[in-house]
Automatic annotation (TrEMBL):
Tagged with keyword Transmembrane: yes
Protein name (Swiss-Prot/TrEMBL): NnrS family protein
Signal sequence bounds: none
UniProtKB keywords: Membrane, Transmembrane, Transmembrane helix
Length: 387
C-alpha cells in the first residue's frame, strides 16, 4: 500500500510537469494519495501493532485489518478516477469514493469494539491508557466526516462549520488517532518513561488534540474567541510532542531519532500556527504540505518502518535507503513554498520534487522486495514487535 500511495504522489508531481493521461485531474490524484496513506498504510499497521502488543498469543482484529486493506484498493481507484464526484450507475448517480470511505469507518468501529472486548478488565498499562484515548479519537474524528455529510444533506453552507467538519476528520485523525497510537507503541517498549511529568503532558495533549484541529481552519473564517481556544489546544499538543521527543531521545537509536526530529518540527509548526499572525503567515507562504509531511511521513511512517525493520532484519539497508529518500522528499517540498527566495525559483523545483518522490518510490519498492524475499526464505521474526 505504501508503495502504491507513494507512486500516486509521484504521479501527482508528474502531473505538475505535464497534463496527466486519461483526463485524470490533479485534485483527484491528491485525494487518492492521501486516502490510501491514511486508510491503507498507517491505520492498518497501527492496528496490527496495537493488537499484537495487547494479545501477543491471539492478536484480535486480523480479519478487520485485512478488510481495511481490501477496501483501501477500490477506494484509492475511485478517488483517482472520480474524486468526490458522482458516478452514474444506471439511473442512479452515486458518490462512490465517499461511500467506500464511509465503509472504512464501520470497520474502524468494529476494531474499536474488538479492542474494548480484548482489553476489558485488563490492568491499564501506560500503553493501554494512551491507546484507549487513540481509539476514542479515531471514533471522534470519524464524526467530522458524518457531520460533513449531514451538512450537505441539510444544506448547511456556513463556511466555518463546513471547513471545521473537514478538519475535525483530517486533523484529529492524524493528531489524535495516529499520534496517540504512536505514543502507545513507544510506551509499550519504554514503560519507565511514564513519569508524573510525562503523564501530565499526555493529559494536556489529550485535552489539546480535540481543540487544535480548529487551527486548520483559515484564520479569516474562524471567530476570534474560537481561535484562542484552538491556540490553547495547539500549544498543549506542541508541548507534549516536545516532551515526548526529549524523553525518548536517549531511548531510541538511528532512524527513530530522525522521527523525533520531525516530531519537534511539527511541534514548532503547531506553536507558530497557534498565533493568528503565525497561522496567516503559514497560509500565505503555503507551508501546509511540508507541515503535514513532517509528521505523517517523517515521524509516523519512519517509526512504522523502524518497527518492521526489527521484524525483517534483512530489510535494514533498504529501510535506511528509504529513510534517506524521505529526507530528500522533505527537502524538495521547501522550494515549492513561499519561504524559498523568489530569485532562486524556476521549473527545476518541480523536477526536484518529482525526482525526490520518484527516488522514494524506488526505495520503497526495494524495501518491499527484500521483505517479500525474507518472508519466502522464512527469515523473519513473527513475534510481536513490542514487548
Ligand atoms: C514519499 C512519500 C510521499 C510522497 C512522495 C508524497 C507526495 C505528496 C504530494 C505530491 C502531495 C500533493 C502536494 C500538493 O498538493 O502540492 C501530497 C499531499 C498529501 N499527502 Fe503525501 N506524500 C508522501 C507521503 C505521505 C504520507 C506518509 C502521508 C500520510 C500518512 C501523506 C499524506 C498526504 C496528505 C494528507 C496530503 C494533502 C492532501 C490534500 O490536501 O488533499 N503523504 N503528498
Amino acid at each position: 500500500m505504501f508503495v502504491v500511495a507513494i507512486a500516486t504522489g509521484v504521479f501527482y508531481r508528474y502531473g505538475m510537469l505535464t497534463p496527466l493521461p486519461g483526463g485524470l485531474a490533479l485534485p483527484n490524484v491528491r485525494h487518492a494519495h492521501s486516502h490510501l496513506m491514511y486508510f491503507g498504510w498507517v491505520t492498518p499497521l497501527l492496528m496490527v501493532l496495537i493488537s499484537e502488543t495487547v494479545a501477543p498469543q491471539r492478536p484480535f482484529g486480523r480479519r478487520l485489518v485485512w478488510g481495511l486493506i481490501a477496501l483501501a484498493v477500490p477506494t484509492w481507484a475511485l478517488f483517482l478516477r472520480y474524486g468526490y464526484g458522482v458516478v452514474a450507475l444506471g439511473e442512479a448517480r452515486l458518490p462512490l469514493a465517499t461511500i467506500f470511505s464511509s465503509l472504512h469507518m464501520l470497520v474502524w468501529y468494529a476494531f474499536a469494539a474488538a479492542y474494548v472486548r480484548a482489553t476489558w478488565g485488563m490492568r491499564r498499562t501506560p500503553a493501554l491508557r494512551v491507546w484507549d484515548v487513540a481509539l476514542a479519537f479515531l471514533v471522534l474524528a470519524s464524526g467530522g466526516a458524518w457531520a460533513r455529510a449531514a451538512f450537505v444533506a441539510l444544506d448547511v453552507r456556513d463556511p466555518f462549520l463546513t471547513t471545521a467538519a473537514v478538519h475535525l476528520f483530517l486533523d484529529l485523525f492524524s493528531d489524535g488517532w495516529f499520534l496517540f497510537a504512536l505514543l502507545g507503541v513507544w510506551l509499550a517498549r519504554f514503560p519507565a518513561l511514564w513519569t508524573p511529568r510525562l503523564r501530565l503532558l499526555t493529559l494536556g495533549m489529550a485535552v489539546g488534540a480535540p481543540l487544535a484541529f480548529l487551527l486548520g481552519v483559515p484564520v479569516a473564517l474562524t471567530p476570534p474567541h474560537v481561535r484562542w481556544v484552538a491556540s490553547g489546544g495547539g500549544l498543549l499538543l506542541a508541548l507534549g510532542c516536545v516532551g515526548y521527543a526529549l524523553a525518548l531521545w536517549r531511548e531510541v537509536r538511528g532512524v527513530e531519532r530522525l522521527a523525533l526530529f520531525f516530531l519537534v518540527l511539527k511541534a514548532t509548526g503547531l506553536m507558530v500556527a497557534s498565533l493568528p499572525a503565525g497561522a496567516m503567515w503559514g497560509e500565505q507562504v503555503g507551508l501546509r504540505i511540508p507541515y503535514l509531511h513532517w509528521f505523517l511521513l517523517g515521524t509516523v511512517s519512519v517509526v512504522l518502518l523502524a518497527r518492521y525493520a526489527e521484524r525483517f532484519p534483512s530489510t535494514q539497508p533498504a529501510i535506511r535507503g528509504l529513510v534517506g529518500a524521505i529526507v530528500l522528499v522533505q527537502v524538495s517540498l521547501l522550494p515549492l513554498t513561499g519561504v524559498w527566495p523568489a530569485a532562486l525559483g524556476g521549473a527545476w523545483r518541480l523536477w526536484f520534487a518529482f525526482g525526490a518522490a520518484f527516488i522514494a518510490c524506488v526505495a520503497a519498492c526495494w524495501v518491499w522486495m527484500t521483505m517479500w524475499m525474507s518472508r519466502r526464505a522464512g527469515q523473519y521474526a513473527p513475534a510481536p514487535i513490542a514487548p
